[in-house]
Specification:
Layout lengths: L1 H25 L2 E5 L2 H11 L3 E5 L14 H8 L3 E4 L9 H5 L5 E4 L25 H18 L4 H27 L7 E6 L3 H7 L2 E6 L9 H14 L3 E5 L5 H12 L5 E6 L14 H16 L1
Parallel strand pairs: 1-2, 1-3, 3-4, 5-6, 7-8
Helix pairs in contact: 2-5, 5-6, 6-10, 8-9
Length: 301
């Protein structure tokens, strides 16, 4: 019996040594994220030093997303957990509060609350990635956290960050040039839910939406009727559906405009709470926000 126990002990130690050796050999930081925007950001800054698992895929709505047991396991076993905060992943708040991981990065906490849009006493508009200046701050925070976990790769992360910030500056200039193509009197961005306020503020648009900042809020007939009246009065050419939100509310708005004697087109699909994919050449944050600018400008100019 003692021999069997001794043999089992040796086998267990051997397996542990092998496992540790494999981890040491890979040397990668295991990161679990929520939105695919964050997945992409980690990949851009972390490069080949990270192994990223994103919980939410293309088209997922973070406001309504409910974590599975498998998701919780991925979060608990990560070296680093990255999420948006600001009540973006509203149905996962308790999970984040109970995580015991050593390294957790709440991206919303990296921003000055005085610069954010306050919804009520305790909540802010969480769609901060649509302001590229905010995104740059969060990219810096990602770099700092990765360097804290793996200080030997600090210069590598810094180099990736600087290259990324340069691309981000170029994207910002591209977007502004696109929005500038739209006549000032036509710069109205009408969407299903209020996800684009930071984008509108940065690039010079006026934004209106059927729902508030969360798709978890109810849609009333009066909201649609009032917005339809606004569209008719301002002769707005186009309204937009979103990739992660049901299109029915925008279609209902279009019908309400027609009932009032107006005419408004659906100008295309915008990426709001989720990036796109390779098929549509929107598989990165930068490609996604540039595609949004193209869609908006083409429909409104």
């Amino acid at each position: 019996m003692k021999k069997i126990f001794k043999l089992l002990t040796i086998m267990m130690i051997s397996l542990l040594v092998i496992a540790c050796g494999e981890k040491k050999e890979s040397g990668k930081i295991k990161v679990t994220t929520t939105l695919n925007y964050y997945t992409n950001l980690i990949e851009e800054i972390g490069g080949d030093k990270v192994e990223v698992t994103g919980l939410m895929k293309e088209g997922e709505d973070p406001h309504l997303y409910v974590a599975t047991a498998g998701d919780v396991d991925k979060l608990q076993n990560a070296d680093l957990v990255v999420y948006g905060g600001l009540h973006l992943e509203g149905k996962m708040t308790e999970i984040f509060d109970n995580l015991s991981n050593k390294y957790i990065l709440n991206l919303g906490e990296q921003l000055d609350k005085n610069l954010l849009h306050k919804e009520n006493e305790n909540t802010y508009d969480p769609h901060v990635w649509f302001n590229t200046k905010f995104w740059a701050i969060q990219a810096q925070a990602v770099k700092d956290k990765l360097a804290e976990i793996s200080p030997e790769n600090k210069e590598y992360f810094e180099s990736n960050l600087q290259a990324y910030l340069k691309s981000l500056d170029e994207a910002t200039e591209y977007i502004q040039a696109k929005i500038n193509e739209i006549p000032e009197e036509s710069r109205y961005l009408i969407t299903a839910h209020d996800a684009f306020a930071y984008f509108a503020e940065q690039f010079g648009l006026q934004v209106k939406a059927i729902q508030g900042v969360s798709t978890d809020s109810e849609i009333g007939t009066k909201q649609i009727e009032d917005l339809a009246t606004f569209i008719v009065e301002h002769k707005i050419k186009a309204i937009f559906v979103e990739s992660s939100v049901n299109h029915k509310s925008i279609e209902a708005l279009q019908e309400a405009v027609k009932a009032k004697g107006g005419n408004v087109e659906i100008g295309g699909e915008l990426y709001s709470d989720s990036m796109g994919d390779k098929e549509n050449n929107t598989e990165t944050y930068i490609k996604t926000i540039k595609a949004n600018a193209d869609t908006i400008a083409n429909a409104l100019k």
